[in-house]
Design brief:
Layout (H helix, E strand, L loop, with lengths): L4 E6 L5 H14 L4 E6 L4 H8 L4 E3 L10 H11 L4 E5 L1 H13 L5 E5 L12 H15 L4 E4 L2 H9 L8 E3 L16 H7 L9 E6 L8 H14 L3 E6 L5 H10 L6 E5 L4 H7 L2 E4 L8 H8 L4 E4 L14 E4 L4 H13 L1 H18 L2 H18 L2
Helix pairs in contact: 1-14, 3-4, 4-5, 7-10, 8-12
């Protein structure tokens, strides 16, 4: 068995599921193998990493194309006798191509957290188009790939990044042994955001950054369809992003803005899931979304688009519903059905909790990565 000494490189500007994924991964690996986390900037991500007491080294990249950090990364590789480099995200992928020139025999594995052809970047459509091209180029320079679902693994193989010996899959996991602290119970949470509190109201929630890939426009269209039939609903959107004003304008145009609440970024997600009755995911693309897993931890059934690995958790009529073809009417019908049947909601909540608890543990998540590192080290002998 090889000694594993792995350096994880990430920009540090990551949010949402990718941020949770990496912090959970480093936290778990740190007890098993030598692990070093390197970020290219200081950020909320690095603050959370410090709070978790992760083995963090912060670099100070001045811009996306500042290559001075390559020498610093090379020094860390040599000083810490690193034998695997693990990359997360587009900026880190780009920098890794230059690290590879200095260490051509060092295996580099990158995690595919999203469909890189759909990623959005700050700066508009042109900037996104350019950076997607750069990231696609950088990905071709990597040695191994980990998709955060079998679908993402298959996507990379189909796009000719490699075969089974170079492309792996790992599903996200949750630590069910970690106690959840809810400081604001449901009524207090809703009141803090000026949301009506009434036992007759059904609260439908979606969490995710307000970017095109999350498809919040569909969520608002679903809300309109539901509200047109039944006014005893409130739709809660947790997250911030560049589309906020556009989405608010859409809800006003539909004349349903009194039923939709934009909560902004929520730093205690379990308080949000505790407050809602039905969890919704409308994304165009996902890997294995934490919003599904965290909602399951709080025993919330989910109505979701057919993305990533959701089919491993969402069983129609048992734990929630998978909606094909982004169909607004189907979404609305299932949400109304769940609203009308409290017992059904509770049974689905219990079942989705059981499936995630039994099959997607943090221990399995960590051990899967260690197995991949060992395979890589055996492969390069």
């Amino acid at each position: 068995m090889n000694e594993i000494r792995v350096l994880h490189l990430i920009s540090g500007g990551d949010t949402g599921g990718a941020k949770t994924h990496v912090i959970n991964l480093i936290n778990g690996l740190n007890d098993e193998v030598f692990t070093l986390l390197v970020t290219l900037m200081e950020s909320d991500f690095t603050e959370d990493a410090k709070k978790s007491k992760l083995p963090l080294t912060m670099l100070h990249q001045k811009s996306r194309f500042d290559l001075s950090v390559v020498d610093e990364i090379s020094r860390l590789i040599e000083e810490n006798k690193i034998n695997v480099i693990h990359i997360h995200g587009a900026r880190a992928n780009f920098i890794a191509t230059f690290v590879k020139k200095k260490h051509p025999d060092m295996p580099i594995v990158t995690t595919i957290h999203s469909d890189y052809l759909l990623d959005d970047y700050r700066g508009g459509k042109l900037v996104s188009f350019i950076f997607r091209k750069i990231n696609a180029w950088a990905l071709r320079k990597m040695d191994y790939y980990i998709g955060v679902s079998d679908r993402f693994k298959d996507m990379m193989i189909t796009r000719r990044f490699g075969t089974d010996n170079r492309v792996f899959s790992v599903y996200n996991g949750l630590d069910f042994n970690k106690k959840i602290i809810i400081e604001r119970e449901k009524e207090a949470f809703l009141s803090d955001y000026n949301v009506d509190t009434n036992e007759s109201i059904t609260y439908v929630g979606i969490m995710g950054r307000l970017d095109p890939v999350k498809n919040h426009k569909l969520f608002i269209e679903i809300a309109k369809e539901v509200v047109d039939k039944n006014k005893n609903f409130r739709f809660l959107i947790a997250g911030d992003g560049k589309l906020e004003e556009e989405l608010k304008e859409l809800s006003r145009n539909y004349k349903i803005d009194e039923y939709i609440h934009f909560l902004g970024f929520i730093d205690k997600p379990y308080e949000f899931y505790n407050a809602i009755d039905i969890n919704v995911l409308t994304s165009l693309s996902e890997s294995f979304p934490y919003v599904m897993l965290e909602g399951a931890r709080m025993k919330k059934p989910i109505v979701t688009t057919d993305v990533g690995g959701v089919e491993h958790v969402v069983k129609n009529g048992e734990t929630g519903y998978v909606i094909e073809n982004f169909n607004v009417d189907d979404f609305a019908d299932k949400i109304i059905e769940l609203s009308n049947d409290r017992v059904l909601r509770e049974n689905m909540g219990e079942e989705i909790y059981r499936i995630v608890n039994e099959n997607f543990s943090m221990d399995r998540f960590i051990q899967n990565h260690i197995e991949i590192y060992n395979e890589i080290l055996e492969d390069i002998k």
